[in-house]
Amino acid sequence: MLGQILGNKMVTASVVAWMTAQLLKTLIDAARYKRLNLRLLAGTGGMPSAHSALVCALATTAGKTQGFGSPLFAITLILAAIVMYDAVGVRQAVDKQSEILTHLLNHIPRTQDDFDRFLEGLVGHTRFQVLAGAMLGIAIGSAWL
Fold first, then answer.
1. E strand or H helix that includes residue 45
2. Full-model pTM
3. CA distances from 100 to 44, 90, 95, 97 (A)
4. Is the pLDDT of residue 79 over 60?
5. Domain map of the chain by residue range?
6. Where does residue 140 fall: left (phi above 0), alpha (psi -120 to 50 degrees), or beta otherwise?
7. Residue 112: how many CA atoms within 13 Å on its side-chain side?
């Protein structure tokens, strides 16, 4: 059974797309901030969206192997749309909550390091990050077969 799963091109293309996005995210962050943050290899948020890359690789390989008119492609396409929509929606909600928390916490004496650690997490994605992840997933899904 494990051999069948590992030999499934839809699974392997999706995992490779996710891993590539996570690696690119780490390298982009390292170039931007001149430091290597290995936590990004498994973290959420950032550029490009690994969620988008994974579901778009899945949909692309489903379309290429089963046909773009197949029920499997339709399911994976709808799944991809939902994942990408939620990635952007979560980001917008968290950004708004972060603004409110920052405003509230500005009235409590703390150091800048305390604020940075408290608000550090990246959750969700911008539209551009989702688009970049989708393009990466489609490219890997297309090239994988």
1. none
2. 0.71
3. 22, 16, 9, 5
4. yes
5. 2-144
6. alpha
7. 0
Chain segment 62-78, per-residue pLDDT in tens: 999 999 999 999 999 99
114 phi and psi angles, rounded to 5 deg: -60, -45
- Backbone φ and ψ of 123, nearest 5°: -130, 135
The predicted pLDDT at position 92 comes to 76
Average pLDDT over residues 116-136: 73
Phi-psi region of 124 (alpha: psi -120 to 50; beta: other; left: phi over 0): left
- Cα-based torsion angle of the residue sequence 34, 36, 39, 40 in order, rounded to the nearest 10 degrees: 60
pLDDT in tens, 25-49: 999 999 999 999 898 888 877 889 9
CA distances from 47 to 13, 105, 118 (A): 19, 28, 21
**Which structure tokens are listed for 122?**
């990246």
